[in-house]
From TrEMBL:
PANTHER family: TRANSPORT ATP-BINDING PROTEIN. SUPFAM superfamilies: P-loop containing nucleoside triphosphate hydrolases. Keywords: ATP-binding, Nucleotide-binding, Transport. This is Peptide/nickel transport system ATP-binding protein. Gene3D superfamilies: P-loop containing nucleotide triphosphate hydrolases. It holds the Pfam family ABC_tran. It comes from the Bacteria.
Length: 241
């Protein structure tokens, strides 16, 4: 069975806006599924519904064989560990008052008891922080710094390290390179590709950057006005006419 299966999902906001109008898709373990579409088509709404940051209005979300719409906050804990998100703007995702080390330990402190320890030994907190920084190719000397002392690319590496820290099955990448300069964009995409293979991660990769998404994805969904209007397999994305 699929890691994630979404059936006829709908989302109507309180103001009557139908942001998602019946979308269905599935995501396999270790797969990268691309999602492209113009601003306002509903990509972020879909991401927030998957993460249960927003209630859905209709349809079903099945993760690891379990329907998750009806779960209460406590029942959602293992699910919240298993599906992480990386946002567009790493500066907004990191608490400016916390040292990098403490930001990195945040999910572990919250959900670490559910984690498998397939990749990170966590023999001690400081060893764990070093393991995480190494995984995203940052020097351990950054652990004591604050976010404003890091570049945009370094900050995004920290948010990626934090997302993988508790060994999720899946990460929603919501425009993960959109706020970065061109050189950092390429480096972050390469890192995300490496981590996907090393940790057997599934990605839902949301972007308006077709080149970035098609580079990494095995399939590509095209969203317009809350619906999927097209789907391409990898061979079709690179086919020559
Ligand atoms: P993006 O295109 O990157 O998703 P938006 O500018 O559409 O960003 O949305 C930014 C934030 O404003 C989001 O949290 C979204 O939920 C909220 N938002 C967008 N449109 C509306 C709206 N019509 N009413 C209320 N909140 C909105
Ligand atoms: P995208 O991520 O593709 O830019 P969004 O999911 O942010 O699109 O928005 C989809 C539609 O829903 C837009 O028309 C947006 O204005 C609207 N929207 C987003 N958030 C809210 C909200 N909190 N309340 C009402 N409308 C919203």
């Amino acid at each position: 069975t699929s890691l994630l299966s979404v059936e006829q999902l709908t989302k109507e906001y309180k103001n009557g806006k139908h942001a998602i109008r019946g979308v269905s898709f599935s995501l396999e373990q270790g797969e990268c599924l691309g999602l492209v579409g113009e601003s306002g088509c509903g990509k972020s709404t879909l991401a927030r519904c998957l993460l249960r940051l927003e209630p859905v209005t209709g349809g079903t979300i099945t993760f690891k064989g379990k329907p998750i719409q009806q779960l209460n906050e406590k029942q959602l804990n293992p699910y919240r560990r298993d599906m992480q998100i990386v946002f567009q703007n790493p500066a907004a995702a990191l608490n400016p008052r916390l040292r990098i080390r403490d930001s990195l330990l945040d999910p572990y402190n919250q959900y670490g008891r559910h984690m498998q320890h397939n990749y990170f030994s966590c023999s001690s907190r400081s060893a764990f922080v070093d393991e995480l920084l190494e995984a995203v190719e940052l020097p351990s000397s950054l652990a004591g710094r604050y976010p404003h002392e890091l570049s945009g690319g370094q900050k995004q590496r920290v948010t990626i390290a934090r997302a993988i820290s508790i060994e999720p099955a899946m990460i929603v990448l919501d425009e993960p390179t959109a706020s970065l300069d061109v050189l950092s964009q390429g480096a972050i995409l390469t890192l995300l590709e490496q981590l996907q293979r090393q940790l057997n991660l599934a990605y839902l990769f949301i972007s308006h950057d077709l080149a970035a998404v098609s580079r990494m994805s095995s399939r590509l969904l095209v969203m317009r006005e809350g619906q999927f209007v097209d789907e391409f397999a990898r061979q079709e994305m690179f086919a020559e006419d």
